[in-house]
UniProtKB/TrEMBL annotation:
InterPro entries: AcTrfase_RimI/Ard1, Acyl_CoA_acyltransferase, GNAT_dom, N-term/lysine_N-AcTrnsfr
CDD domains according to UniProt: NAT_SF (cd04301)
GO molecular function: N-acetyltransferase activity
Name of this chain's protein: Ribosomal-protein-alanine N-acetyltransferase
Domain N-acetyltransferase, first and last residues per copy: 16-163
Keyword Zinc-finger: no
Source organism (scientific name): Vagococcus silagei
Lineage: Bacteria, Bacillati, Bacillota, Bacilli, Lactobacillales
Keyword Acyltransferase: yes
Pfam families: Acetyltransf_1
């Protein structure tokens, strides 16, 4: 997990603590997804359990504010990339820079693992998230047709190249 190789990835910024997700956090992560997706979490308890079990090939980070889990990011090592499996911030805590903070963590995580890219898929209709990713430097690699099972929506396949400084010390 993160703390085993780089304590600098865990920090505290203006009352928001970034910590590793533990199994007991799963209901809190599902609560966040329910708030965002009409009362139903797209990820079951079992999916989270499986994801959190893959400690060697991924990492999940939560953002805690005054004891409440207000957001999280999931990362998985895939080929040349650290892939964002999920990123979600409670509605009341959006637009304060927390998502950007977690994307910075994703970049750091990729660099620590000598990966050249951060990748993700996002719903084609999710304009605000796509705008944020573009601002971050992600480019669109392509469209994955009919990617989301629940509504048959297309996904935008995005990639952030980390450049020549991938192996730098952070
Ligand atoms: C997408 C998501 C993770 C972004 O998280 P966030 O915490 O709102 O992200 P940020 O606050 O860093 O950035 C969002 C916007 O707020 C702005 N912002 C950042 N800090 C700010 C601040 N202190 N004050 C005002 N605005 C700020 C950013 O510039 C950005 O603006 P933009 O929309 O014009 O690009 C969040 O909206 C979310 O959980 N959405 C629902 C789930 C989802 O869509 N996940 C993505 C799946 S791929």
């Amino acid at each position: 997990m993160l703390s085993e190789y780089d304590d600098t990835l865990i920090n505290q910024t203006e009352g928001f603590h970034v910590e590793e997700v533990r199994m007991i956090d799963i209901p809190y992560l599902q609560h966040i997804l329910k708030q965002l997706y009409g009362g139903k979490s797209p990820w079951s308890y079992t999916i989270f359990l499986l994801e959190l079990s893959r400690k060697d090939s991924g990492s999940y980070l939560k953002v805690v504010y005054q004891g409440e889990v207000v957001g999280f990011i999931g990362l998985r090592l895939e080929g040349e990339a650290a892939h964002v499996t999920n990123i979600a911030i409670l509605p009341n805590y959006q637009n304060r820079g927390i998502g950007s903070m977690l994307l910075e963590k994703a970049k750091q995580y990729a660099r620590v693992h000598n990966k050249n890219y951060v990748t993700l898929e996002v719903k084609a209709s999710n304009e605000s998230a796509i705008r944020l990713y573009h601002r971050f430097g992600f480019i669109t690699k392509g469209i994955k047709r009919d990617y989301y099972r629940e509504n048959h929506e297309d996904a935008v396949d995005m990639s952030l190249y980390l450049g020549a400084d991938t192996n730098e010390e952070i």
